[in-house]
């Protein structure tokens, strides 16, 4: 693989991942309550960080050749970013709902409310 | 290759600054917890991009530990917000 093609692939992956993180940060500013912010945070951990890690993997393969241990570490990192961070965000959303100061009227799908009314 | 990585670093720094602005002017505690999570992942991204530029040997080990253990602060903050309840 020539250097230009590797540079182009790494560039597309890295800048794409960085743009998804920027989208999540802008979502923090534009959302009007905490639960909406937890929702707009998901592109950062689901797409942004995996793309940046994949850019580092492509760069590493181009420089040092294939390494199975590095590939396994990358697979575990991406799986952790997809699964573990999602569980953490779910816990954060539950805590934000339980301690809410005021739900924005535009936030719909209030699935936790019927359970609280019956308890 | 270098300018591409530095462009990506610049975009992530911009996202961190936006998160910091929201952190200073946040209306409640749950917002601060979400922004703290965002800043943590921005730090991971900055480390990966900087390590790719410099050819760091321990790059993937650090990233593996960071993504596996990093949820700890989010869980701790969510327990603090809900005053110990689930």
Describe the overall structure:
The complex is a heterodimer of chains A (119) and B (86). Chain A contains 5 helices and no strands. Chain A is mainly alpha-helical and 119 residues long. In chain A, helix 1 (3-30) packs antiparallel against helix 3 and helix 3 runs antiparallel to helix 4 (68-98). Chain A has helices at 3-30, 34-40, 42-64, 68-98, 113-118. Helices cover 80% and strands 0% of the residues of chain A. Chain B is built from 4 helices and no strands. In chain B, helix 1 packs antiparallel against helix 2, helix 2 (29-54) runs antiparallel to helix 3 (59-69) and helix 2 runs antiparallel to helix 4. Helices cover 83% and strands 0% of the residues of chain B. Chain B is an all-alpha fold and 86 residues long. Chain B has helices at residues 2-24, 29-54, 59-69, 71-81. At the A-B interface, helix 1, helix 2, helix 3 and helix 4 of A face helix 1, helix 2, helix 3 and helix 4 of B.
| Strand segment count of chain A | 0
Radius of gyration of chain B (CA) equals 15 Å
What is the succession of H and E elements of chain B? Answer: HHHH
Mean pLDDT of chain A: 85
Beta-strand residue percentage of chain B: under 5%
Tally of DSSP helical segments of chain A: 5
């Amino acid at each position: 693989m020539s250097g230009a093609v590797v540079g182009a692939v790494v560039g597309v992956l890295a800048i794409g991942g960085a743009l998804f993180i920027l989208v999540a940060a802008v979502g923090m500013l534009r959302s009007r309550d905490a639960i909406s912010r937890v929702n707009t945070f998901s592109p950062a951990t689901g797409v942004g960080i995996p793309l940046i890690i994949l850019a580092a993997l492509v760069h590493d393969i181009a420089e040092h050749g294939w390494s199975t241990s590095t590939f396994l570490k990358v697979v575990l990192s991406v799986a952790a970013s997809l699964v573990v961070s999602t569980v953490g965000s779910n816990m954060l959303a539950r805590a934000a709902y339980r301690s809410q100061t005021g739900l924005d009227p535009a936030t719909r799908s209030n699935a936790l409310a019927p359970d609280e009314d019956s308890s | 290759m270098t300018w591409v990585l530095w462009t990506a670093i610049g975009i992530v720094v911009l996202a961190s600054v936006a998160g910091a602005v929201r952190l200073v002017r946040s209306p409640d505690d749950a917002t601060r917890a979400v922004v703290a999570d965002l800043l943590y992942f921005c730090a991971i991204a900055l480390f990966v991009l900087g390590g790719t530029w410099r050819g760091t040997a321990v790059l993937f080990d650090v990233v593996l530990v960071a993504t596996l253990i990093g949820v700890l602060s989010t869980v701790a903050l969510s327990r603090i917000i809900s005053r110990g309840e689930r």
